[in-house]
From TrEMBL, chain A:
This is NADH dehydrogenase. The chain crosses the membrane at residues 57-81, 93-109, 115-131, 143-165, 185-206, 218-241, 247-267, 279-297, 303-324, 345-365, 381-402, 423-443. Signal peptide: none annotated. The lineage of its organism: Bacteria, Bacillati, Bacillota, Clostridia, Eubacteriales. It comes from the Bacteria.
Automatic annotation (TrEMBL), chain B:
It holds the Pfam family Proton_antipo_M. It comes from Sulfobacillus thermotolerans. Keywords: Membrane, Transmembrane, Transmembrane helix. It is found in: Endomembrane system; Membrane. Residues 106-386 form the NADH:quinone oxidoreductase/Mrp antiporter transmembrane domain. This is NADH:quinone oxidoreductase/Mrp antiporter transmembrane domain-containing protein. It comes from the Bacteria. It is a multi-pass membrane protein. The chain crosses the membrane at residues 25-42, 62-80, 87-103, 109-130, 142-163, 175-192, 212-233, 245-265, 299-319, 339-364, 376-397, 417-438.
Length: 453, 443
């Protein structure tokens, strides 16, 4: 397990001394070896404990749980796809991205509250520099938005964590949290989840950041970094069961509202990257609905959506950036007839769009189906919000697909013919997306969830 | 006793060196060796002559503050070596001797003498390194305001001594209004030296006006001395006679954080940003004092000392006599000054409290100390901490910005001791044993 952390850390230490030309091969090597380490080196139940700052309640407690394992795999695969996609990465960007990667890994593995917070912060702060450095013309404001929202969310998480720590509750494994404490902690955490997941109306930073960020940053941010906060919900859920139970209908309603508004916002976009970003808000709304009830089916559905979304959204961001390379625009109206120019690219776009629409056979379907099942059992009212949302989401993506498949390409394409290699790097994300969608039951067996409940 | 005699002898030796006009390196070496020997001597258990015993505070934590002051001076010696001639060495040593006396004493008069010796050394250094009229103006401002608070100290000591009938520092027994007036004066003088709200107004102008080496000293030594004295006096109950002391300290701490971070946000020049950032940092030293938590305040003080020496040492090496804007820092990582830039990045991250730096642990100590207090207090403190990320990262960013290659940089390549402090910030942030040992055995 230590090797899993050591690989990125050694890479971070070595990186400033390496020549620029060696950055890309070593980044790929690091991502590949760490992904292999995550898949074959980390097995369920593995744990590591060490004392670090006992007087602060901050100790090293790492463990692989059934829910963290798939997310660790996702983490590796998304990083690997970014490493393969990025043709000429700058050294700074690779450094900050790897730092964020190690933070995310720490957050997924941590069983100590403060260690989770540290991972959370390491996964957040480098993104300010990443967004600020490379991206669209308005990236300055976008980076500021991101940092302001994230810093506030992080401090609410720290407030909740410290409240527990001063009551001598330092690990996620502790069961007894006094009732009076539960509700204040839950309230503080709710603010963090609302901002970081995000829930409407705290989502403002997300489309702005994605609109301006460069492709690798968008891919990693929406693919994995966005999952740290909802994963915290799962970790905290065993300690805060009564509070979660009390607030479940409210949170489910809030999540459903986010799903509906996210879908509507996505429908209203003319920019493909913004469409992907707004659709992410809807997907994360599903995650919070699934989590809000605290049932085992709900938790499993939440992880499945996170995995599905973690594969589909980087795939779509990747495809968007390739389309931009090809036609010099991200506007959907400029993409008419793109299929004639680049069938492979449009095929991957179709896979991603189908996943977002919740087509069976792709990874988002089992999760969204699970959400509907849970909602049907616990709170059927929110289905009145979810069903229209699904229709809007389908409409959003059908509109995009109709544009790219039919008609004649009017816009002059760039002379750079689509680099086939970079198109096929989408396979890193697309193939797992299909594999998980075809047979979710196999995967849940591998992750030892004891079958879908 | 040896330690104290050596402490008195080193400035005298340095003064003699000045008269003899020995090589600069010799006086600098003597200063550094003297400080190192003093650190060893003060760490050993030592007895003083019975006639002086009542002047020294009986706490065992005193040794930490003595070492902290001496260590800060040693760090300053290392960082400022290129600027230090014989006179500067003497003045720095004098200020240090005053600081050691101030943090160890149990007597109001000795405390006054100690703090004033620090001040005299500082005025001298600021004047010695002042090359422009703006520098002189900053010095005058610092001097006049400093003298005003010196007067407040004298008045406060007079009132306290008059009520207690003794100049020995001890817990207050009565709630006499004259005593309250005296303690208030003393308390505000210490807050002024730390650059804390509502007495922070001198700091930005003085920092901006003085030359980098003088700013480095002003930002560290007097704040460490005043901070140590304030921690020591507050936790031993000297200020208990002040009504609403806890609420007062809470307000001052949170106010200092808010004023400092709002001021630092959107500053255009590095030095002014650092001045306001340092004000915000002082808030975290004061915060645990509101629940009389000596350990947390001292750990933060230590972290502040290490980080600010690294920040100012690196910034001064990077900017020479200029006061850079963010644009001036673009591309420095590609020039010979890359090690200073790296130090500045690490140190700013340490100030912000990035994970795996000492600043992170110190901030956790500081805020955990008040977690049993009202939620308004700690939630405000936390949100301000979140806000501080905005300006620290705003200043870290330019180093990574893409830039056209410029080769007209005036940065002299190389390294100085500020890199050592950057390593300490990260090292102590990861290896917790030294701080854990310190807090368990002394604080």
């Amino acid at each position: 397990m230590l090797l899993y952390f050591l690989i990125p850390w050694m890479f971070l230490i070595l990186l400033p001394w390496l020549p620029q030309a060696k950055t890309r091969p070593l980044f790929i090597a690091m991502a590949l070896s760490d992904t292999l380490q995550a898949i074959f080196g980390l097995s369920l139940g593995q744990s590591f404990h060490g004392s670090w700052w006992p007087s602060l309640g901050l100790n090293i407690a790492l463990a692989v749980t059934p829910f963290s394992q798939p997310l660790l795999w996702l983490n590796g695969i998304v990083l690997l796809s970014i490493a393969c996609t990025n043709q000429s990465p700058s050294r700074d960007s690779v450094f900050w991205l790897s730092l964020a990667y190690s933070g995310v890994s720490l957050a997924f593995l941590s069983r100590n509250l403060l260690l989770y917070f540290l991972g959370f912060e390491i996964a957040v702060l480098p993104f300010y520099l990443l967004v600020r450095k490379e991206g669209g013309t308005d990236r300055r404001a976008a980076a500021l938005y991101f940092l302001a929202f994230s810093a506030i969310a992080g401090m609410f998480l720290l407030a909740a964590t410290l409240t527990l720590v001063v009551h001598h509750i330092t690990t996620f494994d502790s069961h007894v949290v006094p009732r009076t404490l539960q509700f204040s902690v839950y309230g503080l955490l709710l603010v963090m989840w609302a901002i970081k997941t995000p829930l409407w109306p705290f989502h403002l930073w997300l489309p702005r950041t994605h609109g301006e960020a460069s492709t690798p940053v968008s891919m990693y941010l929406s693919g994995v970094a966005l999952k740290v906060a909802p994963f915290g919900f799962l970790s905290f859920s065993s300690m805060l069961a009564p509070a979660i139970h009390h607030a479940s209908s409210l949170l489910a309603l809030w999540g459903a509202l986010t799903v509906l508004l996210g879908s509507l916002l996505a429908l209203g976009q003319t920019d493909l990257k913004q469409t992907v970003a707004q659709s992410s808000i809807a997907s994360m709304g599903y995650v919070l609905i699934a989590l809000s009830f605290g049932t085992s089916l709900g938790n499993q559905a939440a992880i499945l959506i996170m995995i599905g979304h973690g594969l589909a959204s980087p795939l779509l961001f990747l495809v968007t950036s390739r389309i931009y390379d090809l036609i010099g625009s991200r506007q959907i109206q400029d993409m008419t007839g793109l299929y004639q120019k680049s069938p492979a690219l449009v095929s991957w776009l179709t896979v991603g769009a189908f996943a977002y629409m919740g087509i069976p056979g792709l990874a988002l379907f089992p999760g969204e189906f699970g959400v509907v099942m849970v909602a049907l059992q616990r709170d059927p009212v929110i289905l009145y919000l979810i069903i229209p949302a699904m229709l809007f989401m389908a409409a959003t993506w059908l509109r995009v697909l109709a544009r790219v498949h039919f008609g004649h390409l009017t816009r002059s394409t760039s002379n750079v013919s689509s680099r086939t290699g970079s198109v096929w790097s989408a396979a890193w994300l697309g193939i797992p997306l299909i594999l998980i969608g075809i047979a979710p039951i196999w995967w849940t067996h591998i992750w030892n969830w004891g079958g879908l409940k | 006793m040896t330690a104290w005699i050596v402490l008195g002898m080193v400035p005298i030796v340095l003064m003699v060196f000045e008269l003899l006009e020995v090589p600069k390196a010799l006086s600098l070496g003597t200063l550094a060796a003297g400080l190192a020997i003093l650190m060893v001597l003060f760490s050993q258990p030592h007895a003083v002559l019975p006639m002086y015993e009542h002047l020294l505070a009986p706490h065992q934590a005193i040794v930490i503050y003595q070492e902290l002051v001496l260590g800060t001076a040693l760090g300053l010696t290392g960082v400022l070596a290129p600027h230090q001639d014989r006179l500067a060495s003497t003045l720095l040593m004098m200020a240090t001797a005053g600081g050691v006396a101030a943090v160890s004493t149990n007597n109001w008069l000795m405390l006054f003498l100690g703090i004033e010796t620090v001040n005299v050394g500082l005025y001298g250094l600021a004047g010695h390194w002042s090359w422009t009229r703006i520098g002189d103006e900053a010095l005058i401002k610092y001097f006049i305001l400093g003298s005003l608070f010196t007067a407040a100290e004298v008045a406060g000591i007079g009132l306290i001594g008059g009520i207690h009938g003794t100049l020995t520092i001890g817990p207050s027994t009565t709630g006499h209004s004259v005593l309250i007036a005296g303690l208030t004066l003393m308390f505000s003088a210490l807050l002024f030296k730390m650059g804390s709200f509502p007495f922070h107004l001198w700091a930005p102008d003085t920092y901006e006006g003085t030359a980098w080496p003088a700013t480095t000293v002003i930002a560290t030594l007097p704040k460490i001395v005043a901070g140590s004295v304030l921690i020591h006096l507050t936790t031993s109950g000297v200020f208990n006679a002040l009504p609403h002391l806890t609420q007062g300290l809470e307000t001052i701490a949170v106010g200092t954080m808010i004023v400092g971070s709002l001021g630092a946000w959107r500053q255009r020049r590095l030095k002014r940003m650092l001045a306001y950032a340092a004000i915000a940092q002082v808030g975290y030293i004061l915060l645990p004092l509101s629940s009389r938590h000596m350990g947390a305040a001292s750990v933060y003080l230590l972290s502040y000392a290490l980080t600010s020496i690294a920040v100012f040492g690196a910034a001064s090496a990077l900017s020479g006599s200029a006061n850079p804007t963010r644009l001036d820092l673009v591309g420095v990582l590609d020039t010979g000054g890359r090690w200073f830039a790296a130090t500045l990045i690490v140190a700013l991250a340490g100030f912000a409290g990035f994970p795996f730096t000492l600043g992170m642990a110190a901030k956790l100590y500081s805020i955990e100390a008040v977690m049993h207090d009202s939620p308004v207090l700690w939630l405000t403190a936390l949100l301000v901490t979140g806000f501080t990320f905005l300006y620290y990262f705003r200043w870290i960013y330019p180093f990574f910005a893409q830039s056209p290659k410029t080769d007209d940089s005036t940065v002299s390549p190389g390294i100085n001791t500020s890199q050592l402090f950057a390593l300490l910030i990260v090292g102590l942030g990861i290896w917790s044993y030294p701080l854990a040992w310190l807090t368990q055995n002394f604080l």
